[in-house]
Amino acid sequence: MKKIMTLILALCLLGSLVACGGKAAAPASDSDLQYVKGNGKLVIGITDFEPMDYQDETGAWIGFDADLAVQFAESLGVEPEFIEIEWDNKLMELDNKSIDCIWNGMTLLPEVEESTSCSRPYMRNAQVVILAADKADDYEKVEDMAGLTFAVEAGSAGEEAAKELGFSVTSVSSQANALLEVSAGTSDAAVIDLLMAYAMVGEGTGYANLTYTFSLNEEQYGVAFRKGSDLADALNDFFKEKYADGTMDALAEEYGLAGSVIEQ
Amino acid sequence: MSFQEQLPIVLGSLNSGFLQTLRLFAITLLGAIPLGLVIAFGSMSRLKPLAAITRVVVWVVRGTPLMIQLLIIYYFPGLMLKTNWWGSGESGRFLAAAIAFIFNYACYFSEIYRGGIQSVPVGQQEAGLVLGMTRPQIFFRVTLLQVIKRIVPPMSNEVITLVKDTSLARIIALQEIIWAGQSFLKGSQGISGQIWPLFFTALYYLIFTGVLTVLLGRLERRLDYFR
Question: Is the predicted pLDDT of residue A123 greater than 70, yes or no?
Fold first, then answer.
């Protein structure tokens, strides 16, 4: 009995080795554009992020970014496919080719621009400080906040801004979790995107007890592709066209982002 | 949106997330229970090199976090071998997660099996040999039933742990129930900034492990035949 099992196990080990060796790497095509066209689909990495990428009642992805991404895929003659990713793993997902681009209201940070090929910035955003509504009046300047604890999303632009100002910072896994921290009182304040604050904080939202105060810095959104990808240039041309014909402004209007689109 | 309006949307989303959790749970048990036996025999093999290799593998798998194993299994092919054979969709992520879970749990199970098999006194095997039984006969007619009886309590423990460990699969964006609950924090399907769906997921786990505890307890009593 044991001998039979031993044999089976040995065969299993052998099989897995063969499986590894046999799967030879496909020759890497130089052009990402050709790769996407060959696949017949553009895989767009997103998180559920209103008003950029989110689902309507039917489960279809809509939003400023999603609508543009669909049009971009059409212009390439391929199908758009939206894949929800874990934001912390976005660069791995890109290099892994499980997505072709990160198109999700992504702030252009030096570390992202270094390891990917990004489009030109297409939208302005800011980082704002979130406080409990009943305490907001006590904090009018950055100096007033020295003693507060801040919840920020790990790896976000908000984290960078808060650290630069020397705040005591707790990193959490998402901007939503940062809001949860303030709401629960486990942190005094949070730093999140202005666009997100519009949608989620204040009266009539899930966080009516919170408010947003001043912004820490200006920043810009861009779309990231694999390093060296020619899709970035294709998208820049696409943005130029869609800015010139007014499509981008119309979409910004539709999703409550009027005035934040950057001229292409 | 009032709570009454939110409830059906949230429950629908949590239910489909929990279905994914259950699928991962079921496929892990189906794969790991037999694979664990193969690994157990490997680690007890009289072929010394095979036993040594198997034990090293078990050590590596038990000695590293399952979360890292998930990341390696899903991302390694695309990043290092330049061929992402999982694909980007939900099914590829599920397959990668299932393989990681099956292998991880098989290694834990193998140690439980080994303990169970080795706890049966050697004298019984010797007696079997004296009576002219073959080794397979001794294993299936003498040893196996006693082993099953002995390993049910530790296996139950692992099974309950597995229910909750499935939540680790969200690291490779498998949309199980925790993912579903958390999506309402940042906003999904018109509901944003809601904390309660995430906490509510605990109830699903609690009820499911409750059912499992009762079932496994029954199995244990049913196997009480050597008293």
Answer: yes
